[in-house]
Design brief:
alpha/beta; Ubiquitin-like (UB roll); Rossmann fold; 3 domains; 6-stranded mixed β-sheet; 4-stranded antiparallel β-sheet; 17 strands
């Protein structure tokens, strides 16, 4: 019987339209706009000034603290300005704009395709290289990877889980990466295990990707301490807590982190980035992005330089369809709609989804019929209908008491509600307010 998590979960249509499309290298743009905050934690601090010449892979913004990440130039050229630019959600943030001139990389970066399997670095050397390369979680959370690899005192990592689930409908960037860079992902997994002194590793993949399961099972045969686990298809199995439950049976406590149960989770894209950073001296300045949608002329998986405008990806996929109603950064369940396509691809951009007009409209909201579907599908065991009600009424004590901070914002409740109630919208509102209250309480 295939493993999965309990409770909750839904089965939205998969729509993996671009799954069969090999990764294409997107042309280098004429200009890139690189935000200095592409990660959870403190924004990076710009190291360059207007008029400076930069090379591909050069550090252009230094991490602003332990929970932060370096930012590297994805192109070579001249710094045009340091200015306020829209981030991936459209909000104004500080960023570095570079006019491209050629494609000159730092000499230390190994640009060959040759696989480098062996390494003799100790754990600190691996962590330091990961930190220098500015690697963050590429599944969307963008938590700085080096922070994950240094557990708090009194906690010990026992298990590494590599997340190859990609449960969001439409997105296929992780799937294609597993098919085309399986060897590198395995080496990256070994590096992460060595960095934390872990003896047991799992690669979790849903069974709608049998080709990836088969390939990675073959590639890990010589490493008995790394096991590929085939999982039942269920959303949001890619969530850390749900994946840990599915594979190990361990349950992360309310308000806790995976390390509380001796587990660390990293995305397959992160494992690949770790391989490139440690074995190839290559910082994180490009990533795989899916561009897809039912009306998209050429659904694709692109290797994209960070800072490239979303409009350039859409153009490479055939342009904006006439029946476009909404453009989403990410997948349809947890992604966010963007108002303009001049926003930049960042480290956390996994996909660009173009939704048809007829599918993008919200249906009419009616009164709650007390069916409890939202409760049954919540993977965190919450009561979404109640959290929405107390958030609407601004009853913040009740919102906090009903564990709103445990919500992973997967959208399963809104997806399943027959009354079309904006459950997640109000839960996000309540979560944001309670978060403010909790931070003020600590100060």
């Amino acid at each position: 019987m295939l493993k999965t998590f309990k409770p909750g979960g839904v089965h939205p249509p998969e729509n993996k339209i671009s799954a069969g499309k090999s990764i294409e290298v997107l042309a280098i743009p004429k200009t890139v706009s690189i935000p200095v905050s592409q990660h959870i934690g403190a924004p990076a601090v710009a190291l360059v000034n207007r008029g400076d010449e930069v090379k591909v892979g050069q550090v252009i913004a230094k991490s602003g603290g332990f929970v932060s990440a370096n930012i590297h130039s994805s192109v070579s050229g001249k710094v045009k300005k340091i200015d306020i630019i829209p981030d991936s959600s459209g909000y104004p943030k500080s960023g570095i704009v570079i006019d491209v001139e050629g494609d000159e990389w730092l000499e230390k970066i190994d640009r060959s395709e040759e696989l480098v399997k062996d390494f003799d670095l100790d754990s600190k050397e691996i962590v330091d290289k990961i930190m220098e390369a500015g690697i963050v979680g590429l599944g969307g959370a963008t938590f700085p990877t080096h922070v994950k690899l240094v557990p708090p005192k009194g906690m010990k990592a026992e298990i590494l889980i590599i997340n190859g689930v990609e449960c969001e409908p439409y997105l296929t960037s992780d799937h294609r990466l597993m098919l085309e860079k399986a060897n590198e992902i395995v080496v990256g997994t070994r590096l992460l295990m060595k960095a934390m002194g872990i003896e047991k590793g799992y690669i979790g993949i849903e069974n709608n990707k049998p080709d990836a399961i088969s390939l990675l099972t073959e590639k890990t045969k010589e490493y008995p301490n790394i096991k590929v686990v085939s999982l039942k298809v269920k959303y949001p199995q890619g969530g850390e807590k749900q994946l840990i439950k599915a594979i190990t049976g361990r349950e992360v406590p309310s308000g806790g982190l995976p390390i509380a149960v001796g587990t660390v989770v990293s995305n397959v894209g992160t494992a690949f980035a770790v391989y490139e950073a440690v074995q190839k001296n290559k910082p994180l300045f490009e990533r795989i992005v899916t561009v897809t949608g039912k009306s998209v002329e050429k659904p694709s998986n692109f290797k994209v330089r960070i800072g490239t405008a979303v409009s350039e990806l859409i153009e490479a996929a055939g342009g904006t369809p006439e029946d476009t109603g909404k453009i989403i950064s990410g997948g349809p369940m947890m992604g966010k709609a963007i108002a303009k396509t001049d926003v930049s691809v960042t480290k956390g951009t996994s996909g660009i989804l173009i939704i048809k007009d007829e599918e993008s409209k919200r249906r009419e909201t009616i009164a709650c019929i007390r069916c409890s579907k939202c409760v049954s599908v919540c993977p965190m065991g919450l009561e979404p209908y109640l959290l929405m009600t107390v958030s609407q009424k601004q009853m913040w004590d009740a919102v906090e008491a009903n564990k709103v901070m445990d919500c992973i914002e997967c959208g399963s409740c809104s997806y399943t509600c027959p009354s079309n109630r904006p459950l997640l919208d109000y839960i996000r509102l309540g979560k944001g307010k309670v978060g403010q209250i909790m931070r003020a309480r600590k100060n």
